[in-house]
Amino acid sequence: MSLLELKNVSKIYGDLKALDSVNVHVDKGEWVAIMGPSGSGKSTMMNIIGCMDKPTLGEVLLDGVDIAKESSKKLTDIRRDKIGLIFQQFHMVNYLTAVENIMVSQYYHSMPDEQEALEALGRVGLRERAHHLPSQLSGGEQQRVCVARALINHPELILADEPTGNLDEANENIVLDLFAQLHAEGTTLIVVTHDPEVADAAQRTIVLEHGKVAREVINEDFDAQQKEWLARLSMESKR
Amino acid sequence: MLIALLSIGIGATILAGLVTIYVDVPRQMGAQFRSFGANMLILSDDEEGMAKDQTDKALEGIPADQLVGAAPYRYIRVDMTTRQQSFTAAGTDFNQITKTSPYFSVEGRYPENPREVLVGKEIAETIGIREGSTMELTWQPAAGNAEGDPSKDRQPGAVLSGSAEGWSGGIVYVTAKLDDSSKIASLTIDAGTQTPEIGGLAQTDEAFIRQFVGKALPLMLGEDVDALSGATITSTAVVEALNTARDAQNVVTAKTVKYTVTGILTTGGEEESYVFMSLEDMAGLTGSDTVDVVELSVSASAEELEAYAEQITENVDGVRARLVKRVTRSETAVLGKLQSLVFLVTAVVLILTMICVSTTMMAVVSERRREIGLRKALGASDGSIRTEFLGEGMFLGLLGGVLGAILGFVFAQVVSVNVFGSSITFQPLLLPAAVIVSMGVAALSCLQPIKRAVAIDPAIVLKDE
Fold this sequence. Notes:
The complex is a heterodimer of chains A (239) and B (465).
Chain A: E1 2-13, E2 16-27, E3 31-35, H1 42-49, E4 57-62, E5 65-66, H2 72-82, E6 83-86, H3 98-109, H4 114-123, H5 139-151, E7 157-161, H6 169-184, E8 188-192, H7 196-201, E9 204-209, E10 212-218, H8 222-238
Parallel strand pairs in A: 3-8, 3-9, 6-7, 7-8
Antiparallel strand pairs in A: 1-2, 1-4, 4-5, 9-10
Helix pairs in contact in A: 3-4, 3-5, 4-5, 5-6
Chain B: H1 2-34, E1 40-44, H2 52-59, E2 67-80, E3 85-92, H3 94-100, E4 105-108, E5 116-120, H4 121-127, E6 134-139, E7 159-165, E8 171-178, E9 184-190, H5 206-210, H6 232-250, E10 255-266, E11 274-278, H7 279-286, E12 293-298, H8 302-315, E13 319-323, H9 325-367, H10 369-377, H11 382-419, H12 430-454
Parallel strand pairs in B: 3-11, 5-10
Antiparallel strand pairs in B: 1-12, 1-13, 2-3, 2-12, 4-10, 5-11, 6-10, 7-8, 8-9
Helix pairs in contact in B: 1-9, 1-11, 1-12, 9-12, 11-12
């Protein structure tokens, strides 16, 4: 069942076609990577999927609603209710603690609930760091807080923009482990990246070039990866 | 943020200070103006002067807390025969003079005891008199002068007693009580020396006595009153005794008194050519204690003064009150100018504060662009961004307002003490007023920054910078 569908979506800036009749569909629970060199239209597509921009032409169906036709106020509502965002720069409010940063997201969505925010931090293994300021957290820890923040309102879709771009390999693996866990739990993931390793972790990779979908690569090893991951996880939990 | 708080605080300080001074200044200025002299006069309606009960009644027309001072004056001409000089002597109350005419400068001291005078500098220089000298002053009731005119009754309500020779050298005594209009209210005759069955009846004959009642002196027998039948000589004696008693009462003769000079008065005005003595001394010299004018110093607005004057003129018989326009007018003019100045400065300060706060908030918005973008990306609506910044601004205004009200009072206090030399009272209304104005200014200043904050594109958080 499709959660997101882009039909003939174009974004045109003057003479430049940032996106040129793109057709993409993502099923519910799918883990999709979007790859491409800079200038390929990745960011534009991310903005449109993240309800922060509208296409010039075409339809964008998110959960059955054509977000290309909605007002920007309505787009804010949809983004808040259906999408969890993860950024390359993490973007935490620097004067709020980890748990408060998560509660900001709750505040705009419904109502801050510290208990729930702490549980979300526990999920990313940072329960003990809840009352630390961003400056007291490592990059990897900050990104894990941001994953927790993206999850807190139970979005339909997690949209991650170069989530490991600023992380070392160890932290990259932690974040990818989190994604695998989310996938196992049925969360839909769209990860924009130019890192082939990150893309390889996904079920399917959409490669953009010059504003068009150049090719789609299905990860044949995905199920095996997941099994391996689950085995490793259960081993770690036994240890 | 601290800068914005400071600017609101300073703005509120200046505002609160100015408002406090502005509220307090009329009082202060009033006191200053009072030092330029009286601003209201109470005058007699006629040339008779005013009796004490009249002036007392007039003064009741002015609230005690606004009455700074009320100095009565009576002016007469006196002669200094030893020098062949004549001056104007002013009778007054020295305690009040220091209140209504604070600019009077005395070398020596004000008179405190009977027969002491204050001499104007001009007179002192002319006749070479110094503090401690004595001077003999003579008061001469001029012909036709109210004080010396026997044709005028000066003492209504008096009791007259007199005597005249009746039948065969026997003396007839009369005692008459006068009413308020100097007419005979009652009459007693002692005619014991007269023939009992003839002239002696004047003492008991009610018809004879009754005809005097209600008549003004002097009387003429046969015209104003009829003679007792068969006793013309006794009747004539009664009329004569009454007329003589009246004249004796009214005729006042010249009097000379020796005074000690306690001080020399410098005023820069015509007062320097006067001799000042107490009203009691003047009454002792002239036998009369009326007052020509009362100079009032009243701490009130021009409108209030006008109302008081009108009331006094209307309510008190024989008295009219009048404003000293020169003083009241300049007071109003100065206060008016001060008012526009305060408004102008207030407006400028408000605008400067707004510019400063607005600029600071603008900087805050640019500084927090990413955070605002993030908040919007996380689902903050334009409304909640607006509310957050407005709330922050209002909080700033609240703090600044409280700070300003307190500092403003201190500022006003310092200004007041330095400029007017007196402290001021705290206006309790100032605190809420300062807070409301500060919050309003802060809110207005935030409008443009908020507009900019709302316009921030949430997509900025996606670009890797």
